[in-house]
Amino acid sequence: MLKLKQVIPPAVEPVTSSQVLKQLKFDDTDPELIEQIEGLIKAAREWCETYQNRAYITQTFELALDCWPRGNRVKLPRPQLQEIEYLTYRNGGVLNTWDASNYVSDDFSEPGYLIKVSGVNWPASVKNPNGIIIRYVAGYGPSPEDVPETIKLAIQMLTVYWFENGLCEPPCAVYNLLDSDRVVPI
């Protein structure tokens, strides 16, 4: 079971309320309308990220494990991996930080991996649920310009669709825009 927690959300959304209001042909001076659109944009981005299993704007996650993997790597969901901040583990109730020289990050693969350096062993066994925590940063980048245009278009289309039709099943066009870069868990 994947135990992933977002600990620092994105600082901005990939799409602005002005962009959506322009498509809806509305004036962007009504604060209640802007607030409604901003809520829909956030919900649409979250839906699209979940569907694609990706992070769009830079955000920080923690992946919890109950035990060390059998192999030499740990898959880090929600690409693109930018950096691994740290790996901590509990041993006998004591929190330890595993030295970063013991592992490397594979940020080329999607999803990315934490890979144990050859010749290094995983630390002693962990007996606590969620005893291993890997904190990492993922996303295309910190600004909307870093996000692919197809994703921004899908978020904008979904926001407009939900505004006009209520929160219902997204249209096929949104799925079509997102399917080409979808990360399907195996």
Protein architecture, described:
- The chain has 186 residues and is α+β, with helices and mostly antiparallel strands.
- 30% of the residues lie in helices and 26% in strands.
- It is built from four helices and eight strands; from the N terminus they run βααβββββββαα.
- Strands 1-2-8-4-5 form a five-stranded antiparallel beta sheet, with no helix packed on it. It has a three-stranded antiparallel beta sheet with strand order 3-7-6, with no helix packed on it.
- Strand 4 and strand 5 form a beta hairpin.
Question: Top keywords for this entry?
Answer:
30% helix; elongated; 4 helices; 26% strand; three-stranded antiparallel beta sheet; 186 residues
Category by helix and strand content: alpha+beta
Fraction of residues in helices?
Answer: 25-40%
Strand order of the largest sheet: 1-2-8-4-5
Shape: elongated
Task: Give me the oligomer status.
Answer: single chain
Question: Could you tell me how far the N terminus lies from the C terminus, measured between alpha carbons in angstroms?
Answer: 12 Å
Number of strands: 8
Give, in order, the helices and strands: EHHEEEEEEEHH
Give the low-pLDDT segments: none
DSSP strand content: 25-35%
Rounded to an integer, what's the Rg over CA atoms? 19 Å
Number of helices: 4
Characterize the largest beta sheet: strand count, sense, and whether it forms a barrel. 5 strands, antiparallel
- Mean pLDDT level: 93
